[in-house]
Amino acid sequence: MITPVLLSGGSGTRLWPLSRKSYPKQFVPLVGEETLFKASARRLSGPGYAPPLVLTNADFRFIVTEQLAEVGIRPGAILIEPEMRNTGPAILAAALWLERQDPDALMLVAPSDHVVPDAAAFRAAVETGVQAAQAGKIVTFGITPTHAETGYGYLELADAPGDGGRAIELVRFVEKPDTTRAEEMIASGRHLWNAGIFLFSVATMKAAFAAHAPDLMKPVEQALADATLDLGFLRLEPEAWSAAENVSIDYAVMERADNLVVVPFSAGWSDLGGWDAVWRESGPDAAGVSTAGHVVAIDCRNTLLRSEDDRVELVGLGLENIIAVAMPDAVLVADASRAQEVKKAVAALKAKSARQAESFPVDHRPWGWFESLVIGDRFQVKRIHVHPGAALSLQSHHHRAEHWIVVSGTAEITIGDEVKLVSENQSVYIPLGEKHRMKNPGKVPMVLIEVQTGSYLGEDDIIRYEDVYARGQGAKG
Question: 226: domain CATH number?
Fold first, then answer.
């Protein structure tokens, strides 16, 4: 059995404004109807695969469980990283956790934000690497280049890949090149893109860390030994975890190890590392135009147009080599040749303290989600979506009162000592300071409109009395 290890704690900025720190690209349906995380979990499941081990952070833990449930996959474990320490400590923690079950288990480590259209072909490539992994090799997967990409690292192979699938010795990793060097490497026939996907045994990886990154062993072992269970999640101990170096698996181990082999893969792959990659993977038409959502393209060429809001009509007229992405609260318009520089826009927004730099317009919670529709002086209007059977915490507020109007489904509402059912088109008022809670007792989503009034409307104005999700005081939602 192969245990998939899904890395899902990242917060990429190159696909802003759709991908943000509060809701990154792995949880978004960027290509097709399914999110990248769901597609990754589904791709690495089935015969021969154990339930996945997921590494993520506290903000995403309920999103992870919700999306796994939607594709019918039960995780083996979900490890919560107290803070981002890069892929080195994360993969070591996964290996040490799996060692408890089987020191010789095989681990398939994969980011959860990649696109692999042919899942069967990828599983066949994994099978090609199994024998080498069982023999103590670290197997990485190299993607046959389709163009001189400068946004990827490369793998230099000892031999040119043939038609027969086999593991080939790795000579070295090559950093992201300029265009000229990328073209030279592709012409050599011995260079593949580095997909950042690895297959190895637990014992092999533990030995590799002990040999090449021994300083990581003690803090990660301690963080796992002192980890605590929280609603089925395993929270790594924060103090020990913070002592681990912030280092990638490539730098900590892969570039120093001498037992790496490469399995070539040519059935299609992308890490969707920029809007230019999304444009390619979205299947542009004969004029090179790719559209999504409420979009009109007139006399455009080599252009990506996306509207992520049903209320926003995005119209492109006479555009060439342009990326335009419209969200409810932000719009990106960029030259396609500068797609890799979108992170500069995020940095500029952070510098001016713009909420749009990191926060998504829809705020996801364990019980569902909400979005702010109108914000004014001393009032705010929200739409709140509560999943079937879910409930918000029992709480009160120092600075605001609330009006709730149910527009879909039925809410079980607690106000003080009174509990009652409120149906569609009915409303209730929650005075300032009163204990209250809403719950969806039904089997369909419940939606209500919340009107807040008061001197302070921040999400941290919460006194929490009871919470099925075990969140502390001041936690949002």
Answer: 3.90.550.10
